[in-house]
Amino acid sequence: MKLLVTGGAGFIGSAFIRLLLAEDSAVQIVNLDALTYAGNLENLESVSADSRYKLAHVDLRNAEAVSQTVEEAAPDAIVHFAAESHVDRSILSPKPVIDTNFVGTFHLLEAAKKAGVKRFVHVSTDEVYGSIDEPNEADESAPLRASSPYSASKAGSDMLALSYWTTYKMPVLVTRASNNYGPYQFPEKLIPLMIANALEDKPLPVYGDGMQIRDWLYVDDHCRAIRAVLERGKAGEIYNVGGSKDLPNIDVVHKILAATGKTESLIRYVQDRPGHDRRYAITSEKLMTETGWAPQMEFEQGLAETIRWYQENSAWVERVRSGAYRQYYESNYAERMAADSD
Ligand code: NAD
Ligand code: TYD
């Protein structure tokens, strides 16, 4: 199969490419990626010399370049990961998020329609359902209640992608996964940020009271789910992908401190995120029943493996945390830390 993957130099996209090249000898992959701050070719070092893999350094915001790349690659299927993926950055600066996640997806859909692509998997998030009250879980028919510019851009692009099925019969499938964790995740999201800071004895900034709940999904389990949807999902359908591991943020932080042998005095309760969703919760019953997928990684084991990876790859962390990262860290955390909620 000829695949065009977007955002393959990012956290989940690179895991997906590594997994597919390892498990499918017949696959050929073109990776369309703009290599933003979150796109890192080091994540693909292990496959860069593989003749089945090729990089197309292209920005989704450039409609013509996207169209040309899709036409040249002539893929059987597209798996669309590329996005501005971080809620806090979307709050600080929403425009690139709308431009890439919504307009960029539009460019890709148009290119795919023109090229007659047979399958289009749009990778989305459980955040589109917004905060879910205990003890409920959102299924795929739950209303969309996006809270941040990031989740609104994903909800919008989900609807746009599905409209290409309804209107043009382009075979679009949408996946909505819960919070991912694992190796190679940019240290701006909760788990890698807390691990990286703990390893360097830096403060661990917990937003608000730390009692917000997220469901944690190991990245390789997510990639297997996407593969299952690509191969066995029904066109026009949405599939939730959950890890079945709901935890308050503060419990995750305690587990990281215990596993790294660091002191709890590193915890700082800081000013909350505006519009912060209290709880995400989804059911993946549909995906499990229709494709036989189930998450395989236990959270404790996945967290231990992730921590080991960050311990062994401190140079990677240092490199991705240099340059523009410092500016982001300052703008997101300086005020929050100053307004420390004692
Ligand atoms: P990431 O931020 O690690 O990587 C994003 C990738 O997209 C990078 O390689 C970047 O260079 C590329 N990209 C960004 N803007 C681009 C543009 N304009 N043109 C081309 N490439 C561009 O993201 P991730 O965490 O790997 O997330 C991948 C996808 O999965 C996203 O669509 C995200 O919404 C979704 N998702 C993520 C999570 C999570 O917990 N990380 C959970 C559910 C869904
Ligand atoms: P994050 O990893 O940004 O993912 P999302 O916002 O997409 O769920 O955040 C996960 C949770 O952790 C969320 O409730 C916000 C919280 N959080 C902190 O408490 N401190 C931090 O420094 C970060 C980045 C997140």
Large-scale geometry: globular
The CATH architecture is 3-Layer(aba) Sandwich
Bound molecules: nicotinamide-adenine-dinucleotide, thymidine-5'-diphosphate
Enumerate the strands of the largest sheet in spatial order, edge to edge or round the barrel.
3-2-1-4-5-6-10
Number of helices: 12
Strand content: 15-25%
CATH topology, by name, is Rossmann fold
The helicity comes to 40-55%
Largest sheet composition? 7 strands, parallel
Overall number of domains: 1
How would you sum up this structure, described in words?
This protein is of the alpha/beta class. The protein is built from twelve helices and twelve strands. It has a seven-stranded parallel beta sheet with strand order 3-2-1-4-5-6-10, with helices on both faces. A three-stranded mixed beta sheet has the order 7-9-11. β5, α5 (149-168) and β6 (172-177) form a beta-alpha-beta unit. α1 (11-23) packs across α7 (219-232). Bound molecules: nicotinamide-adenine-dinucleotide and thymidine-5'-diphosphate. The site of thymidine-5'-diphosphate has 13 residues, from α6 and β8.
